[in-house]
Design brief:
Its EC number is 3.2.1.-. By secondary structure, this protein is an alpha+beta fold. The protein folds into four domains: 401 residues, 1,4-Beta-D-Glucan Cellobiohydrolase I, Chain A; 65 residues, no CATH class; 136 residues, Beta-clip-like (Beta Complex); 31 residues, no CATH class. The protein contains 15 helices and 42 strands. A hairpin with a 4-residue loop joins strand 16 and strand 17. The longest helix has 12 residues. It is elongated, with a radius of gyration of 32 Å. About 6% of the residues have low confidence.
C-alpha cells in the first residue's frame, strides 16, 4: 500500500526551475547510492546508482503567480492547465540540490529517511536511478532474490518504512511535454490507482487514476511488518476512470498479505531479545521470488539475517490455513485474497517482474487510520487503536527515521551468507547452519529456471532426486506438518546417500499379502468403528475398567472433545497390546476415528544436531499426552538380509540402532507361516523418515506401539510412536530403544562384560548405563 502525498506545495528550496520537466536551471543534485548485482559464480559487483525524489514531492507551482497547479487526488488547476500544452508552459517544478531538506541523506551504500513534521512538507518518496541518471533502474526479479539491511529502531507504532516495486516506465514517461522524465522523478503509479495532477509528467486534464502492478517487499516499523503483491490486469501505467479505479477495478488494492501477526506468530518480529528478529538492532531482509520450471513466479519467501543467524519466516500457526512459511497461491486463496487470485496471482505478479519494475522508498504515517492495517487491526500487530496517530507517534519517537543500506539483488543464494558468530539460537534461528549450505541448491535452484538444454534438465532431475529438501517437500503432509533440518553445532550433514521416505519399502524377497487375502470392515458409519462388532477390532483385547468389567468400546482412542484422537490412558501407561485400526480397504470414511496412524504424521518435526548425541528430533509445536507423532519406516528386510547387514556393519551393535524386528505377532505355533519366525525387520539407516533420527532415553517422552491395518499384513505391521506425556515445543523427542526391558540389565553391572556393550548417553536420572 503506497503512501499519498498530502500536498504539491513544498516550500521553495532552491533556484533552478523546470517547466513541464524541461530543465531551465542547474540540474537536480541526485544523491548517489551504492548497490550490488550478484551471481552465484561471480559474487557481487558494486554499482554507483542515484536516487530521485518523486516529481510531485517537489515544489510545483504556476510560474506566473506562484499559485497551485493542483492537489493530490484531483486533476490539475483548470486555470493553469486548460490544455496539456498550456500546463507544460504554465507549471514549473523546482529542482533540489540538497535532499537533506526533505529528510533524505545518503552515504555510500546507506540511505536515511526522516519523517517530516512541518505541515507544509510531505515526507519523501524516492526512486532508484540507473548510473546514467537518464532512466530508472529496472528490477527483473522472477527466480531471483532481493536483499537489504534496515535499521527500524526509531519507527514506533503507526510509522511505515516502505520499500516496494512499481511498474512505472523506465524513462518515467519522457515525452515532448515531459523531456525530463525519470531524471526529474516523473511517472509514478501503483495498485491504488490514485488521481494526481500529473501522470507521466503531463497534465492529467481528465482526472484519470494512475494504475500499475505493485510489489510491496517491505512495509514495516519496529513492531510489525508486511509483504504484499498487488497484481493488476493491465501492463505498464494504465489510466483508469470510474469503476476501473475502484476496489473491484483493474488492480488488487488489498493484495495478498504476509504478516507474522496475522499468521499467529507474534514472537517472530518485534522489539527485544524475546523475538526471533530483534528490531531494536539492525538486521538483513532477504526476499526470494521462486519460479517453477516454466519460469513463472510461484512463491515468495522471506528470510532475515541477524547476528549471523539465518531466520526463516515461521510456518503459519493456524490449522485452518496451509502450513507454509512463504506466500503462494494456495495460501492467498485460503486467506480470502479473492481479487488476487482472480487477477492471476503470483504468475501475474511475476510477469510484471519480467517486464521490469522500479524500486521505490518512502517513510510515512497515516493521518486518518493510524496505520492500523499494518500493526494494530485485529490480529495485525501489537499496537492499540490510538498509538499510530501522528500526535501520539511523536510522543514515543520525536524524530521517526529509517535507514536502508547494502541493497543487493541477483540469483537465488547470491546476496547473503550467514556469518559464523556466536549468539543466541532457537528452533527458528539457525547459527552457521551447515545443513543450510549443504542443501542450498534446493532453495536456490530446484524449482527456479535453469538451462533449457536436455542434458542440463536431466542433470537437474537427478540432482533433485537426491536432494533431501525435494524429498521432504514431496511428502503429502509437507504443508500441514513440515519437516526441517538444522545444524548449529558442528560440520556434520545428513549423508547425501540417505533417502527420506513417505512409506516403508519392501526389500528383496519380502512380499505383501495378495489382494485375495485382504479384507476390511463394513461398518455403516464411522461411529461403529469403536465397537467390538467392527471387523478391524475382532482381535482387539478387552479394555477392562478398574473393576474388570469389559467395555463395549474396544478401540484404543478417545473419540470426542479435546482428547479426540489421543491414545487412551490405560493403553498408554500399562498395555503392550497392538493397535488395530481401520484402513483403506474398509467401508468407513477417511474421517473414521479409528484411522489415527493411517492418516499419518500431523506434527511438524525438526531434525537438529545435538551437542553430544549426533542428530536428534524435536517438535515445533506442543504435543499432547497420547498423541500420535509418527511411524518408524525404512526398508523391510528378510531376517537373512537383516543379519547379513549386521555382520557387514563395521560396528554390529551400532547397526542395531536402526533395525527394528517386526516380531509383535511372531509365534512358532502360528498357522500363518509368515508369523512362525524369525520376523522381518525394518532398516532405517539408509532410507527412512524423521523418526530414524530420534534418540534413545531411559526416561523417554515417546513410546512405540505395534499397529495393524489390514490383518493380512500382520507380518509387516507398523511401528507407531505416541507421546507418554505432554511435550512442549522444542523439547527433544526420545523413546526407549528396548522399551524398558533389557536382557543385559545384569550384564551392565558386570564390569567384565561392559566393554562389549553399547553405552547409553541419554543422561537421564535413571539411566541404565548401557543399551545392549
Amino acid at each position: 500500500m503506497a503512501p499519498t502525498l498530502s500536498s504539491l506545495g513544498l516550500v521553495t528550496i532552491l533556484l533552478g526551475l523546470t517547466s513541464a520537466q524541461r530543465q531551465i536551471g542547474p540540474e537536480e543534485n541526485h544523491p548517489s547510492l551504492t548497490t550490488w548485482r550478484c551471481t552465484k559464480a561471480g559474487s557481487c559487483t558494486e554499482v554507483n546508482n542515484f536516487v530521485i525524489l518523486d516529481s510531485l514531492a517537489h515544489n510545483v507551482y504556476q510560474a506566473a503567480n506562484g499559485g497551485s497547479c493542483g492537489s493530490w487526488g484531483s486533476a490539475p488547476n483548470e486555470t493553469a492547465c486548460p490544455t496539456k500544452e498550456a500546463c507544460a508552459e504554465n507549471c514549473v517544478q523546482e529542482g533540489l540540490d540538497d535532499y537533506s531538506r526533505v529528510g533524505v541523506t545518503t552515504e555510500g551504500a546507506a540511505m536515511t529517511m526522516y519523517q517530516l513534521r512541518d505541515g507544509s512538507l510531505v515526507s519523501p518518496r524516492v526512486y532508484l536511478l540507473e548510473p546514467s541518471k537518464e532512466k530508472y533502474e529496472m528490477m527483473h526479479l522472477t527466480g531471483m532474490e532481493f536483499t537489504f539491511d534496515v535499521d527500524a529502531t526509531r519507527l514506533p507504532c503507526g510509522m511505515n518504512s516502505a520499500l516496494y516495486l512499481s511498474e512505472m516506465y523506465a524513462d518515467g514517461g519522457r515525452s515532448e511535454l515531459n523531456p525530463g522524465g525519470a531524471t526529474h522523478g516523473t511517472g509514478y503509479c501503483d495498485a491504488q490507482c490514485y488521481t494526481t495532477p500529473f501522470i507521466n509528467g503531463e497534465g492529467n486534464l481528465e482526472g484519470y487514476g494512475a494504475c500499475c502492478n505493485e510489489m510491496d517487499i517491505w512495509e514495516a516499523n519496529s513492531r510489525a511488518n508486511h509483504i504484499a503483491p498487488h497484481p493488476c490486469n493491465q501492463t505498464g501505467v494504465y489510466l483508469c476512470e470510474g469503476e476501473d479505479c475502484a476496489f473491484e477495478g483493474v488492480c488488487d488494492k488489498n493484495g495478498c498479505a504476509w504478516n507474522p501477526y496475522r499468521n499467529n506468530n507474534p514472537q517472530e518480529y518485534g522489539r527485544g531479545a524475546d523475538f526471533s528478529v530483534d528490531t531494536t538492532r539492525p538486521f538483513t531482509v532477504v526476499t526470494q521470488f521462486l519460479a517453477n520450471s516454466a519460469g513463472e513466479l510461484t512463491e515468495i519467501h522471506r528470510l532475515y539475517v541477524q547476528d549471523g543467524h539465518v531466520i526463516r519466516s515461521e510456518t503459519v500457526n493456524n490449522p485452518d490455513l496451509p502450513q507454509v512459511n512463504y506466500l503462494n497461491d494456495e495460501f492467498c486463496e485460503a486467506t480470502g485474497s479473492r481479487k488476487f487470485i482472480g487477477l492471476g496471482g503470483h504468475k501475474e505478479m511475476g510477469e510484471s517482474f519480467d517486464r521490469g519494475m522500479v524500486l521505490a522508498f518512502s517513510i510515512w504515517w497515516d493521518e486518518g487510520g493510524g496505520m492500523r492495517w499494518l500493526d494494530g487491526a485485529p490480529e495485525a500487530g501489537p499496537c492499540d487503536e490510538t498509538e499510530g496517530f501522528p500526535a501520539n507517534i511523536v510522543k514515543t519517537e520525536p524524530n521517526p527515521v529509517v535507514t536502508f543500506s547494502n541493497i543487493k539483488w541477483g540469483e537465488l543464494g547470491s546476496t547473503f551468507k550467514p556469518e559464523c558468530k556466536n549468539g543466541p539460537s532457537s528452533i527458528h534461528n539457525q547459527n552457521c547452519d551447515n545443513m543450510e549450505a549443504a542443501t542450498e541448491r534446493h532453495f536456490f535452484y530446484h524449482g527456479a529456471t535453469e538451462s533449457a538444454s536436455k542434458s542440463s534438465a536431466r542433470a537437474l532431475e537427478r540432482e533433485k532426486e537426491n536432494c533431501h529438501w525435494c524429498q521432504i517437500r514431496r511428502f503429502p503432509n509437507n504443508k500441514e506438518a513440515p519437516m526441517t533440518i538444522v545444524n548449529e553445532e558442528d560440520d556434520a550433514v545428513i549423508p547425501s546417500t540417505f533417502r527420506f521416505l513417505q512409506e516403508s519399502r519392501l526389500g528383496h524377497g519380502v512380499e505383501a499379502a495378495e489382494d485375495s487375502f485382504r479384507s476390511g470392515c463394513e461398518c455403516r458409519d464411522d461411529e461403529e468403528c469403536q465397537y467390538r462388532g467392527c471387523l478391524c477390532l475382532q482381535e482387539q483385547e478387552d479394555d477392562s475398567d478398574d473393576e474388570g468389567t469389559a467395555r463395549k468400546k474396544v478401540y484404543m482412542y478417545h473419540m470426542h472433545g479435546s482428547k479426540a484422537g489421543l491414545l487412551r490412558s490405560h493403553f498408554l501407561k500399562h498395555s503392550k497390546r497392538p493397535i488395530y485400526e481401520c484402513h483403506e480397504g474398509c467401508a468407513c470414511t477417511d474421517n473414521c476415528p479409528n484411522r489415527v496412524v493411517e492418516r499419518g504424521r500431523r506434527v511438524p518435526l525438526q531434525i537438529f544436531r545435538t551437542t553430544q548425541r549426533g542428530w536428534g528430533v524435536r517438535s515445533l509445536v506442543d504435543i499432547k499426552r497420547g498423541q500420535f507423532v509418527d511411524r518408524y519406516i525404512g526398508e523391510i528386510l528378510t531376517p537373512e538380509e537383516a543379519q547379513r547387514r549386521r555382520k557387514e556393519s563395521s560396528i554390529s551393535q551400532r547397526k542395531d540402532v536402526y533395525l527394528f524386528a517386526l516380531d509383535k505377532f511372531t509365534d512358532p505355533d502360528s498357522p500363518d507361516p509368515r508369523l512362525k519366525g524369525p520376523p522381518l525387520e525394518i532398516d532405517g539407516e539408509f532410507m527412512s523418515g524423521p523418526t530414524r533420527f530420534i534418540n534413545h532415553s531411559c526416561e523417554p517422552n515417546l513410546r512405540i506401539f505395534a499397529r495393524v491395518g489390514d490383518h493380512a499384513d500382520k507380518h509387516m505391521h507398523d511401528i507407531g510412536l505416541f507421546a507418554l506425556r505432554d511435550i512442549p515445543a522444542g523439547e527433544e523427542l526420545t523413546f526407549d530403544y528396548v522399551d524398558g526391558v533389557s536382557d543385559e540389565d545384569n550384564d551392565a553391572k558386570d564390569k567384565s562384560k561392559q566393554s562389549d556393550m553399547t553405552p547409553c548417553l541419554c543422561g537421564s536420572k535413571n539411566c541404565r548405563g548401557f543399551l545392549w
